[in-house]
């Protein structure tokens, strides 16, 4: 049984001797087996590091006080030995391999028999075995593109490689937290992109995207993604479902072809930095007026103050049963597909607007068009920008008139 991970060994008696010595975790080659020549002897754990390639042997047979494995699914566990009084803590390990090791340690500590084929020879580690795996890789030309990628990668940059699709080798790197695929020719993202469930920073700028890739807000990536850069693409519209992002903090959509911003944009609770310079925006949704941002940039857009879009009527048509049902579906985020509803119903739901109160509305609404000022610490756009508001009730109309 062999395992590569970070290991920290700490002695429990040192604090009682008024000695404060906290060892740092070190990349370690871990082996489980018997000493050479002892075919039926006791089971030992061998820890080899770059500083000590011969390694340190720890007796396991009848020598384990306790095993802490609550966070084994995160690649973490601790073995508490009786003698010496050491705690051996494992981290950044493969959860499956660590789980097997812990099971074997438990059997060895209880003196129970287990398959001999899981035991390894306790010999000094080679230089290659204790070499720490790569955590980042930067590729800036097609000639540097590898035949395969290290599974240990946490950060990957692939620029200027003329990529027209994302390779399955990249989407198989499930530990990636930072991915930069900028300056390529990507028209879309594959469904396999949903495997990158711990991704928090994604750069797709300078590509050929025409829409915000659905896999980003319809898969589990939406739970981890914090920084998304989509500038210099060919995106023309944005989906209402962007509210599915749970941690998105920064969104850059500069230098695209976006004409309208969905009212639901302001309902992304975590969003603090929004950049849409050099687009085709004529106005902004009034829902943005009720949210405070850290930084916003709407410079170099085609804002116009058109009274034609303003409905000065304060008469609210009574909502039909169809509209009430549609409001309920959207308000409660009820998922639906073309298999659940007919084409006309799906089309009707896709035409929803959002009031400044956050509620969806359809025919039963009034429209207001005003100039307003965004609330943010740093604003790189105009001081006053045209806003278009859809209001679902007289109460919201009165509230809007006070803004």
TrEMBL record:
Listed SUPFAM superfamilies: L domain-like (SSF52058)
Keyword Transmembrane helix: no
Any one Pfam family match given in the protein's UniProt record, by short name: LRR_8
Alphabetized InterPro entries for the sequence: Leu-rich_rpt (IPR001611), Leu-rich_rpt_typical-subtyp (IPR003591), LRR_dom_sf (IPR032675), LRR_domain-containing (IPR050216), PIF1/LRR1_PH (IPR057437)
Lineage of origin: Eukaryota, Metazoa, Spiralia, Lophotrochozoa, Mollusca
Keyword Nucleus: yes
Keyword field: Leucine-rich repeat, Nucleus, Repeat
Gene3D superfamilies membership: Ribonuclease Inhibitor
A GO CC term attached to the entry: cytoplasm
Name under which the protein is recorded: Leucine-rich repeat protein 1
PIF1/LRR1 pleckstrin homology domain boundaries: 1-118
Organism: Biomphalaria pfeifferi (Bloodfluke planorb)
């Amino acid at each position: 049984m062999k395992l590569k991970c970070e290991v920290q060994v700490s002695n429990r008696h040192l604090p009682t001797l008024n000695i404060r010595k906290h060892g740092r975790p070190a990349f370690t080659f871990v082996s489980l087996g018997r000493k050479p020549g002892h075919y039926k002897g006791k089971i030992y754990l061998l820890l080899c590091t770059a500083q000590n390639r011969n390694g340190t042997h720890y007796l396991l047979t009848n020598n384990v006080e306790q095993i802490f494995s609550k966070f084994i699914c995160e690649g973490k566990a601790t073995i508490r030995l009786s003698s010496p009084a050491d705690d051996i803590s494992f981290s950044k390990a493969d959860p499956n391999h660590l789980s097997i090791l812990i099971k074997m340690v438990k059997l060895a500590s209880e003196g129970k028999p287990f398959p001999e084929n899981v035991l390894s020879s306790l010999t000094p580690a080679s230089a290659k075995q204790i070499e720490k795996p790569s955590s980042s890789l930067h590729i800036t030309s097609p000639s540097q593109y590898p035949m395969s990628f290290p599974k240990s990668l946490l950060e990957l940059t692939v620029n200027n490689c003329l990529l027209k699709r994302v390779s399955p080798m990249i989407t198989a790197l499930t530990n990636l937290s930072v991915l930069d695929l900028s300056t390529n020719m990507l028209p879309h993202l594959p469904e396999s992109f949903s495997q990158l469930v711990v991704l928090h920073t994604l750069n797709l700028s300078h590509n050929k995207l025409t829409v915000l890739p659905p896999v980003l807000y319809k898969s589990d990536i939406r739970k981890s993604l914090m920084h998304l850069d989509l500038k210099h693409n060919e995106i023309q519209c944005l989906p209402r479902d962007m509210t599915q992002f749970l941690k998105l903090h920064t969104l850059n959509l500069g230098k695209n072809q976006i004409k309208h911003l969905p009212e639901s944009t302001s309902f992304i609770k975590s969003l603090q930095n929004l950049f849409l310079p050099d687009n085709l925006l004529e106005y902004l949704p009034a829902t943005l007026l009720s949210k405070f941002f850290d930084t916003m940039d709407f410079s170099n857009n085609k804002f116009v103050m058109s009274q034609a879009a303003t409905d000065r009527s304060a008469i609210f048509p009574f909502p039909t049963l169809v509209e009430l049902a549609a409001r309920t579906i959207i308000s409660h985020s009820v998922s639906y597909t073309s298999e659940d509803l007919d084409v006309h119903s799906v089309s009707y739901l896709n035409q929803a607007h959002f009031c400044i109160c956050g509620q969806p509305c359809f025919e039963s609404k009034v429209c207001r068009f005003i100039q307003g000022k965004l609330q943010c610490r740093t604003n790189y756009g105009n001081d006053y920008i045209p806003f278009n508001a859809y209001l679902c009730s007289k109460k919201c109309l009165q509230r809007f008139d006070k803004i």
